[in-house]
Amino acid sequence: MYTIDDLSVIFSDALAEVIATVTGVDLQCLTSEEDGGFEEITGVMSLCSKKGGILFITTKEQDIRVLCSRMIGVPQEKVTREDIEDAICEFVNMTAGSAKLRLSDRDYMITLSSPFVIKGKDITVATKTKTHVISKHLGNGEISVILKLIC
């Protein structure tokens, strides 16, 4: 059985690995918060299992533009809105897939939904009182990405 701390490490390590692999950008876990806000663009995916949850990856538009540029190999000024949305969805999809492979407990046998994008900073997610919210801030001084996991 995995603890909330285990899940926090599994998902944040998966995100850092995905970003490093597809963009060459290394991010470190800077802080862990009980719950933080959302940035300008957020990729979302539902994790369906006995212990299901929701995965959020949220960042500023400029930061995802830089990551997207490195991912698809075009200058930042040529990155389109669609490219940005595809990139954040791909980060969510690959992070969830990587975490899914790392989770071996039957309670965490995850089926993944399709990823989608939410835009705007004024997002509020209300949860039941016994729900755990994990928030990890990853960055390198130039790029900042926040992983949120509600389970």
Query: Structural class, from secondary structure content?
Result: alpha+beta
Low-confidence stretches: none
- The first-to-last residue Cα distance is 14 Å
Number of helices: 3
CATH superfamily: CheC-like
- Counting structural domains, the number is 1
* Beta-strand residue percentage: 25-35%
What gross morphology would you assign? Answer: globular
The number of distinct β-strands equals 7
Please write the CATH class name: Alpha Beta
Spatial extent as radius of gyration: 15 Å
Main beta sheet, described? 7 strands, antiparallel
CATH architecture: 3-Layer(aba) Sandwich
* Secondary-structure element string: HEEEHHEEEE
Overall mean pLDDT stands at 89
Helicity level: 25-40%
CATH topology: Chemotaxis protein chec
